[in-house]
Amino acid sequence: MAKTFDRPKALTDKPFHYCPGCTHGIVHRLVAEAIDALGIQEKTIGVAPVGCAVFAYDYFDVDMLEAAHGRAPAVATGIKRVKPENIVFTYQGDGDLASIGTAEIVHAANRGENITVIFINNAIYGMTGGQMAPTTLIGQVTTTSPYGRDPKVAGYPLHVSEMLATTMGAAYIERVSVHDVPNIKKAGKAIEKAFRNQIEGKGFSMIEVLSTCPTNWGMAPVDALGWLKDNMIPQYPLGVYRDKEEEAKAQ
Amino acid sequence: MAKILMKGNEAIAEAAIQAGCQAFFGYPITPQNEIPAYFAKKMPKIGRTFLQAESEVAAINMIYGAAATGTRVMTSSSSPGVSLKQEGISYIAGSRLPCVIVNIMRGGPGLGGIQPSQSDYFQATKGGGHGDYHLVVFAPATLQEMADLTKLAFDVAEEYRVPAMILGDGILGQMMEPVEFSDYTPRPKADMSWAATGNDGSKPRSVINSLYMEPSELESMTRDLFATYGIIAERETLVEEYHCEGAEIIVAAYGTVARVVKSVIAQLDKEEGAPKVGLIRPITLWPFPAETFAKAAAQDSVQSFLTVEMSMGQMVEDVQLAVNGAKPVRFFGRTGGMVPTAKEIKDEILSICKGGAR
């Protein structure tokens, strides 16, 4: 019987360590499919974060670097500036990118670094066991906001896509979700565009992917997908926040 | 090539360019600002990279990324900025990446001051960041050495896949001296096949990483690293012995302070009845030239050691370890940006003699 569904070439055969129902696996696949579709596997260098995706270097079948917590955009800058012919991407979670790594992501975007950033927003710290993230929703219970996130104490959910869209250097910023099939397809297209932008030298592209963390949210995987749709999307509306090219056309 | 009169900071930058440094990433801090300024002016004109990072933290991580591609890269800073770089330096050491880091020291702790100091000796030689690792630390005392040791630092870093540091101070960075740039003979190009430059499937893919979930793997990696350090200690230790033959007192000093000590020795040489004083000047602070000190301690003529530093006493601990109780080891230091004068050092030497150490 002919195979109709296969592993993308840009993924290794190492089994993912992610929890059941976690959407990292989906996003890894989308990134690998984009690399395959664009035929850039041989020249791609990925930068893994600190967080649940720390072992991303085991899964993407390309040259990989493991960065310190939050520093992936600076690491990617270093690679891209000396090897502009390579395709460089970072894959970061919300603790990594939106908390400890805010300086690095803001300035990489503002410099218009010609890199691709995949930003996983699941509103919680996964690897360390469910602590409050900058993206945690108001009232959301985590181990470090056991009575629900109180903005008087812990501030408000950080809207990274909206914030980076204000930088003059960012070329493309889009927020997508992977809670159902139509959205997964949209996310795949957005991720491919973010890589194509780099090939075409358009500059900094970031795709924010709303994701689930069933384990630390304390939900069954299917319930977690519903919770994302009902609670995260209203707080983090999907859509394109910056498209320099389209803005130039419109003017 | 004719000698060029330049600042120490400029000599480092020019030497790095000549050594094939392809990229510089840094963040402004006094008293090393001439280094980034020199790169900013020169690098774009020769098709190389200069980038002012948003912080020292970002700069050292840009170094991590660029070094991972097998490219010669440098960053520079001064004490408080070097503290910020320690996380990245630890990752670079753990990931076995070569690079050159310059610290033009100023006074500390905290924001400290902007005047010259040697109070980052512990940070530079004992690790600085977390984990089991060392930097190869070069301590120039002249501008000529700033140039030559910078070139050597790139070669050593690549040969052993370790980060190397040039540890200067505000005086060396800011002072002007003639520098000759044709003295240095580069080493053969090291094997860079480990670098991450994209993978066409012809070799295993490169994973630049310092994470080991298995303690036994991390231990084994660390043992490999320390085996390399052993080879470095054997082959790369540099030291100057000055007037040590028959000396009664051996002064231990590096960098700027060693220059002052040499002028003290010159003065004492002219004085009748003055004690005979020698200088041991470590040029590599790590690896530390312990053997040279041990040998000196075994000499009958040597009565005692005096370590002089622009700190409250840091290298003195390595001198004590090397001398291992064979002879007394005394310390004199000024700190906070104060530079010991020739008179102070001379008085200290004479007071040791009066104290019956002769």
TrEMBL record, chain A:
Keywords: Oxidoreductase
Keyword Electron transport attributed: no
Example GO biological process: cellular respiration
Record carries keyword Plastid: no
Top-level division of the source organism's lineage: Bacteria
Domain Thiamine pyrophosphate enzyme TPP-binding, first and last residues per copy: 60-209
Protein name, entry field: 2-oxoglutarate oxidoreductase
Native source species: Bianquea renquensis
Highest classification ranks of the organism: Bacteria, Bacillati, Bacillota, Clostridia, Eubacteriales
